[in-house]
Write a structure and sequence with these properties.
16 helices; about 325 residues; single chain; 2 domains; about 75% helix; mainly alpha; 2 strands; about 5% strand; two-stranded antiparallel ribbon
């Protein structure tokens, strides 16, 4: 591997902490200028006792100038300390504890949804591209876009009503009982939230793959392969897919953002005890420390995933390797 590639990788690694620092600075500043006095929010009193207010400011790191408070938070963030929650105080809970005990449920839903998005979106996109000009192409993509257009706030209640109240006899015939709300430990509880999280991303994935396949399928080397007498299946699997699917790694970050954003609504409506529902509650309560910690958790996930994708892409795409050598 050439030295230019090592320089490229080193630059990407160096940019990651700078990006996180910028996100942290902006987010922290927003929490400081947001309406409402944190002391009043914590105590629930318009004019709290001065001595108690002073103790609360000391406990939650609200004393000092902005640079001092920000510096203290950065030190704590590097050490894994995201501060204290304003409302979960019986007993006093840290933000990392509250997020940690809810992250597993959300991670399960998110990983299943992402896996289904890729496993179903790729073949559907390829199928639509190979039927360009046929009614199947717009019917498939248009049908999927319906799910992308309908908000989860509307789709989830309708989908739950259909499965729980209209098709209950069908599922019970096969031994399944789909619950109307989340039931801990019941695998059937995953069906509704996973489907609602998957379908919007599935539409976007199928469209992305379709465009990518159509771009590659008109390349000269594909025409050459067909001229040599290779069948459609061989051309698609040997030449088209291996190049058309390379850009998929670049949309991983967008897929994660879509799942995280959808999880806030889905978990809240379906009663899932995950991070999404907890964040929605924290927004209503103006628990700024929780919101700041969640933002940095998502930002770290995106930065790390994009960093891994960028580094891997250097090795899997020969064109990038050639470009770096030429530079």
């Amino acid at each position: 591997m050439s030295s230019s590639l090592w320089i490229f990788i080193a630059r990407r690694i160096a940019i990651a902490p700078i990006t996180l620092f910028a996100v942290l600075l902006v987010t922290f500043a927003l929490t400081q200028v947001a309406p409402g006095d944190p002391v009043r929010i914590i105590t629930g009193q318009r004019t709290p006792d001065p001595e108690r207010a002073e103790l609360i400011r000391e406990e939650f790191g609200l004393k000092g100038s902005f640079p001092e408070r920000f510096g203290n938070y950065v030190v704590g963030f590097v050490q894994g300390d995201l501060g204290l929650s304003y409302f979960n105080r019986s007993p006093q809970r840290t933000v990392q504890e509250l997020l940690g005990e809810r992250i597993w449920v959300s991670a399960q839903l998110g990983l299943i949804s992402l896996a289904l998005t890729y496993l179903l979106g790729i073949p559907l996109g390829v199928y639509a591209a190979l039927h360009r000009g046929h009614w199947k192409d717009p019917a498939l993509i248009g049908g999927l876009m319906v799910f992308n257009a309908v908000p989860s706030l509307v789709f989830l209640p309708l989908f739950a009503w259909l499965l729980v109240f209209q098709l209950d006899a069908f599922f019970q015939f096969f031994g399944f009982d789909i619950p109307a709300v989340w039931v801990p430990g019941d695998p059937a509880s995953y069906l509704i939230p996973v489907v609602v999280l998957t379908l919007p991303g599935l539409a976007g994935m199928a469209r992305f793959v379709r465009v990518s396949v159509l771009t590659v399928i008109d390349e000269d080397y594909v025409r050459t392969a067909r001229a040599k007498g290779l069948g459609q299946r061989a051309v698609v699997y040997r030449h088209v897919l291996r190049n058309a699917l390379l850009p998929l790694s670049t949309v991983m970050g967008l897929s994660i953002v879509g799942v995280v954003g959808g999880a806030i609504i889905v978990e809240t409506l379906y009663g899932v005890p995950g991070i999404g529902a907890f964040i929605f509650q924290s927004v209503l309560q103006r628990d700024f420390n929780v919101l700041l910690g969640f933002t940095m958790l998502v930002a770290t996930l995106l930065v790390v995933s994009n960093l891994i994708v960028d580094i891997c892409y250097v090795f899997i795409d020969p064109r990038i390797r050639y470009t770096r050598r030429a530079a």
